[in-house]
Design goal:
Blueprint lengths: L7 H5 L2 H27 L2 H22 L3 H25 L4 H22 L3 H9 L7 H20 L1 H9 L1 H6 L4 H18 L1 H21 L5 H26 L3 H19 L8 H4 L1
Amino acid sequence: MPADLPSLSDFLAEPIARRALLACLMIGFANGFVSAFVVLRKSALKVGTLSHALLPGIALAVLVAGLSQWSALAGALFAALIVGLGSIFLSRTSRLDQDTSMGILYTTAFAGGYLILTQLNVRQKLDEWLFGSIVGMADSDMWIAFGISAIAVLSLTALQRPLLIYLFEPNIAASLGVPVRFLNYATFGITILVLISSLQAVGCILSVGLMVAPAATVYLLTNNARTLFWGGGLIGAFGSVTAFFLSYPLGWSVSASIIVVLGGLFLLAYIFSPRYGLFSKRGRV
């Protein structure tokens, strides 16, 4: 621990520390819960693309409406929808597939957003949007994160049965009357909202790790699809809280520490999983 820092117990007595710890628990669980859908859908790269697409929306919002938390959130939501839906439109009206279309859209938008923000002289906020600052979360950030997290977990829990049928057997799901198109758009919207809720915590660069690593870790430990949701949520919460307590004495960024801890948990599962680990019989097949 750096010599000029107060002890961890003294730090935890501060409201800002307790708020950050609660944010780690809440955002970590919500992202881990949603990560089950991302892993089962095999859409991690698309989520990474969407997370990077948040920056140009923030840039345009700041340019038009000024710098505020609500304008940044609205801009991030707008950009994610434009890139996500725009890639679908391009793939349907050209020879390009959706992944290629999304790659073109998000890289162009990301570069343009970065140029706008550098000209607006908001360097400190730019770093927070890129890499997160969970200790700097305000009460309004917490309420937004809480509302989105509750909506995401409750919605996916309520839709879990038809969602699993849709993920594994989309044709059978349609024949059974499962609203496939509704589920597709609903889960897409939930994913975007959870990404935005974690923007202040881990930034648009690192948010994809928080939304993929928890369920990917559980995926190496079980064949039960339902376990991925709750197990991913628990791994996300545990990893985030652990990172909070590790980062303070080491003087590390909490946001980066969360991703490092979750990556470490994934590595342990990859090596030592009894079923699918590197040294298991199945792992060697």
